[in-house]
């Protein structure tokens, strides 16, 4: 029996189950006028309502030709990955597909809470408890993808959505436009994601693997906890230099206030060598993400002893030391 990888060429899947609807999209859906939900280089996402059911959806309108190249194959791959991932509640659901002369429309489950990006950069940033819960969910989704030999390759706060924002709902992973199958014989190299989240091996032209996503998970955890982008430089070149030199500060005030386990969690992902990084499954087992009741309470006596004998850590005494540069 052929594995999914056997059907993949250059990491792209070409078999889909969905019926491609040929009638005009607007026969079956009303597009809600006004603000679009999001926009990328080649896609616009709009909120719409299915006429027959009254249900809300997010319609991703994708141009078939981009920079004079036919990209239908890539869109079919994105559909195939979404179909494969219907078994995971952490990945957005695909409802229907439409094809017009110059566009395809992916009708997706509507994630009403929007991007986690908005909360990462706002004053009402996530609490550490929120981040733990959301991070667990993202890891469950990523673990599912990796078990099925799919790498996302564009994990960032703009591609992680929420079912609701207040109260804080559950996450949904979106945007499989850069995703690839990794079990194929040929090695994959050089698929460029977003500069700030890109792993060192992408920059040095080395093979892509599931560990490439795990680097991005480390950046994501850092951003969700601090609101700071760890490698962001003045320009792309500086960002890439920061990444390839692993120029990241663990001295930020925002990090010092956290459970030290959060820091160790990030550090087991932001490793230069892909083989040194934790897998999604290992991340889910990390002490930081365990439910509070699973952590053994420290005996009172031991706790007081350890406090009285503990010495100040040299790394935290020198305030605001900017060693880098
Ligand atoms: P692109 O490939 O252009 O980045 P995405 O699939 O990431 O396209 O969609 C672009 C943006 O549209 C997302 O970052 C998000 O803000 C919004 N969006 C995408 N899908 C949905 C959805 N199912 N529900 C709500 N908003 C969505
Ligand atoms: Mg996107």
Automatic annotation (TrEMBL):
<dbReference type="GO" id="GO:0005634">
    <property type="term" value="C:nucleus"/>
</dbReference>
<protein>
    <recommendedName>
        <fullName>Serine/threonine-protein kinase 17A</fullName>
        <ecNumber>2.7.11.1</ecNumber>
    </recommendedName>
</protein>
<dbReference type="GO" id="GO:0005524">
    <property type="term" value="F:ATP binding"/>
</dbReference>
<feature type="region of interest" description="Disordered">
    <location>
        <begin position="300"/>
        <end position="325"/>
    </location>
</feature>
<keyword id="KW-0547">Nucleotide-binding</keyword>
<keyword id="KW-0597">Phosphoprotein</keyword>
<dbReference type="GO" id="GO:0006915">
    <property type="term" value="P:apoptotic process"/>
</dbReference>
<keyword id="KW-0418">Kinase</keyword>
<feature type="compositionally biased region" description="Low complexity">
    <location>
        <begin position="304"/>
        <end position="317"/>
    </location>
</feature>
<dbReference type="GO" id="GO:0004674">
    <property type="term" value="F:protein serine/threonine kinase activity"/>
</dbReference>
<comment type="similarity">
    <text>Belongs to the protein kinase superfamily. CAMK Ser/Thr protein kinase family. DAP kinase subfamily.</text>
</comment>
<keyword id="KW-0539">Nucleus</keyword>
<dbReference type="GO" id="GO:0035556">
    <property type="term" value="P:intracellular signal transduction"/>
</dbReference>
<keyword id="KW-0808">Transferase</keyword>
<dbReference type="GO" id="GO:0043065">
    <property type="term" value="P:positive regulation of apoptotic process"/>
</dbReference>
<feature type="domain" description="Protein kinase">
    <location>
        <begin position="31"/>
        <end position="289"/>
    </location>
</feature>
<keyword id="KW-0053">Apoptosis</keyword>
<feature type="binding site">
    <location>
        <position position="60"/>
    </location>
    <ligand>
        <name>ATP</name>
    </ligand>
</feature>
<keyword id="KW-0067">ATP-binding</keyword>
<keyword id="KW-0723">Serine/threonine-protein kinase</keyword>
């Amino acid at each position: 029996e052929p594995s999914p990888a056997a059907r993949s060429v250059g990491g792209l899947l070409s078999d889909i189950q969905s019926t491609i609807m040929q009638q005009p999209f607007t026969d079956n859906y009303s597009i809600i006028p006004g603000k679009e939900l999001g926009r990328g280089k080649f896609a616009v996402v709009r909120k719409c309502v299915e006429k027959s059911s009254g249900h809300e959806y997010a319609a991703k309108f994708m141009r078939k030709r981009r920079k004079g190249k036919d990209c239908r194959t890539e869109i079919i791959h994105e559909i195939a990955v979404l179909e494969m991932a219907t078994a995971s509640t952490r990945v957005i659901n695909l409802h229907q597909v439409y094809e017009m002369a110059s566009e395809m429309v992916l009708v997706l489950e509507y994630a009403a809470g929007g991007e986690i990006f908005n909360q990462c950069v706002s004053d009402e940033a996530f609490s550490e408890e929120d981040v733990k819960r959301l991070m667990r969910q993202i890891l469950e989704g990523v673990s599912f993808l990796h078990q099925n030999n799919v790498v996302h390759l564009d994990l960032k706060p703009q591609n992680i959505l929420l079912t609701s924002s207040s109260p804080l709902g559950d996450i949904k992973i979106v945007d499989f436009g850069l995703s690839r199958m990794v079990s194929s014989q040929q090695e994959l190299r050089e698929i460029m994601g977003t500069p700030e989240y890109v792993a060192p091996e992408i920059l040095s032209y080395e093979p892509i693997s599931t560990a490439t996503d795990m680097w991005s998970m480390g950046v994501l955890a850092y951003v969700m906890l601090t609101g700071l982008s760890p490698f962001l430089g003045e320009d792309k070149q500086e960002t890439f230099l920061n990444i390839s030199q692993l120029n990241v500060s663990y001295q930020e005030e925002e990090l010092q206030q956290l459970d030290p386990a959060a820091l160790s969690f990030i550090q087991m992902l932001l490793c230069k060598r892909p083989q040194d990084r934790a897998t999604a499954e290992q991340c889910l087992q990390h002490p930081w993400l365990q439910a509070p009741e699973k952590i053994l309470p420290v005996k009172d006596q031991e706790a007081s002893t350890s406090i009285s004998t503990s010495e100040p850590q040299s790394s935290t005494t020198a305030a605001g030391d900017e060693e880098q540069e």
